[in-house]
Amino acid sequence: MPTTAPDLETTTAIAAADPAHAATAAPRIKLLANGFAIDHPDPELGERLMADALGVADRDAMDGILRQLVRASVSGNKADETNLAFMIAMAKSLRPRDSIEAMLVAQMVSVHVMAMRCAQHLARAEDLAQHDSAARALGRLARTFPAQIEALNRYRSQNEPAITVQNVSVADGGNAIVGNVTQHRNVIVSDRNRAAARKARRKRKRADAQRARSSAEAPQETRP
Predict the structure, then answer these.
(1) Domain ranges of the chain
(2) DSSP-assigned beta bridge partners for residue 189
(3) What is the pLDDT at residue 16?
(4) From CA 131, how far away is CA 121, in angstroms rounded?
(5) I need a labelling partner for 139 at 20 to 30 A (CA). Which of 1, 11, 197, 211 fits?
């Protein structure tokens, strides 16, 4: 069954039909003979939108990430605008918030594109050597991608605000648990409450020791 490439003019028209979406959507990249350019009627706004999509703070960082994505989009020995537009759209959807996330997200979309390329080579393999080579490459990339997801989630969870518990009461015989008790936030018991808990434990120990001494010193009942 034949497949057709998406109509880029139609895609652009659909995006432009929604003014709010058009105002915030990442612009496309136009590939040139000597490089690339941001395809936007307002160059300054286009740079701001692209920098926001990639999660970078300045032009040098934006140009660097874009150059890397252009090279990673290569298909048939030349950069592919459709691949590049897809990669930028996926990067924007992950909402990178700083330079670390920007680099990691760029790697994630690049690894996905390469994995799909290896899957295509695997489907077209004509002999065992080609099949094994494509299968090994696809396996490595497929294992790398979830590891990148975990790294991104772990990095983001470290930047979440901690929750400080101000009042902790421990009943007799109870145990206070101090540490990470959720997947995404750290629960911290303040030093004041820790000191109060230690003081209460010491007080209970002294009371228990006093009762034991009193019991030992009490006169024993004698039988005739």
Answers:
(1) 14-158, 163-216
(2) 165
(3) 41
(4) 8
(5) 1
The maximal CA–CA distance of the chain, rounded, in angstroms, is 116
β-pair partners for 75: 78
For residues 105 and 108, give the distance between their C-alpha atoms in angstroms, rounded to a whole number: 5
Length of the chain as a residue count: 224
- How many Å separate Cα 15 from the centre of its chain? 27
The mean pLDDT of the chain is 79
Tokens of 192: 């004041």
Three-state DSSP class for 194? helix
pLDDT tens-place string over residues 10-69: 444 434 444 454 456 788 999 998 889 999 999 999 999 999 999 999 999 999 999 999
In the chain, % helix, strand, coil (3-state, to 5) comes to 60, 10, 30
Cα–Cα distance for residue pair 4/42, rounded to 1 Å: 31
